[in-house]
Amino acid sequence: MKKIKEIIKKKNKSKIICLTAYSKNIAEEVDKHVDIVLVGDSLGSVLYNYPTTKKVTLTEMINHSKSVRLGVKKSLMVVDMPFKTYATNKIALKNAKKIMKETKCDAIKLEGGKKIIKQIKLLIKNKIPVLGHLGLLPQSMKGKFKSKGKTSREIKQLMSDALLLQNTGVFAIVLECVKTPIAKQITKNLKIPTIGIGSSVYCDGQVLVTDDLIGLNHTKIKFVKKFLNVKKYINIGLRKFASDVKSKKYPSKKYSY
Ligand code: KIV
Q: 107 and 174: one domain?
């Protein structure tokens, strides 16, 4: 709870940094730079080439999260509940408890507002901290990435869902692909922080998929900025290894028993 309180306190003071991790070694590095490490179900497309996140299973999420747990020391660790694992109150509580127990994460994230509010209420009642997710919802998405908050109906829905989530007790809300003025207004309306992804600088924090920003995963999504081309460095090392093996420079005596 202490970490969650610290994150909420950051609103209007300093930006909240959130990045994904799917395994221990990346989690260890991510943990040094963020407030929240998210085991996102984006791992379905990033690691397994699934066409959507709908194919991601609870077992996959739990296994990756167990590995991430080994690398996260200081940040808040949040795990995505995959598609259909929170379809009813009973299913949601059973699966959320399983995720919390087996991964030892600090909180979970569910996609949606009013439609899943009963499940969120029940989890919070059972002392399971919840991170909300509004705007573009990959688990319900059909077709391409489209921004949200374009029509007055969408705007009304987003505004009321954000307030409903806050009043139900989520500690922050991810806003994905929400139009700038709407993300700005929601952020202003709420006491809890918003964490944007493709939703403008006006959000209280930002989240990205780590593999995208370091250039390990190739994607053409508008909000992804490639901050590093890590593949270039990986290839330097791998090329050197192959060349040293071929020239018998490796393994020298130093590296042999
Ligand atoms: O699955 C994921 O990684 C996410 C973030 C990108 C917000 O939900």
A: yes
Per residue in 204-220, pLDDT (tens digit) is 999 999 999 999 999 99
Which candidate, 72, 87, 79, 45, places its Cα nearest to that of 212?
Answer: 45
Q: Which of 28, 29, 102, 176 is catalytic?
A: 176
161-200 pLDDT, tens digit per residue, is 999 999 999 999 999 999 999 999 999 999 999 999 999 9
Q: Are residues 8 and 116 in the same domain?
A: yes
Atom 2, ligand 1: residue with shortest CA distance = 40
Say whether both 209 and 165 belong to one domain. Answer: yes
Residues 71 and 137 in one domain: yes
Residues 68 and 134 in one domain: yes
Answer yes or no: 176 catalytic.
yes
Separation of alpha carbons 204 and 8, rounded Å: 10
Q: Please tell me the distance between residue 148's alpha carbon and the centre of ligand 1 in angstroms.
A: 16
Total domains, the chain: 2
* Residue 20 CA, closest ligand 1 atom number: 3
Confidence category of residue 89, pLDDT binned at 50, 70, 90: very high
Can you give the pTM of this predicted structure? 0.97
Distance CA 22, CA 25 (A): 9
Length of the chain: 257
Atom of ligand 1 nearest to the CA of 207: 7
Same domain flag for 167 and 203: yes
Ligand 1 midpoint to CA 234 (Å)? 25
Structural domain boundaries, residue 256: 229-257
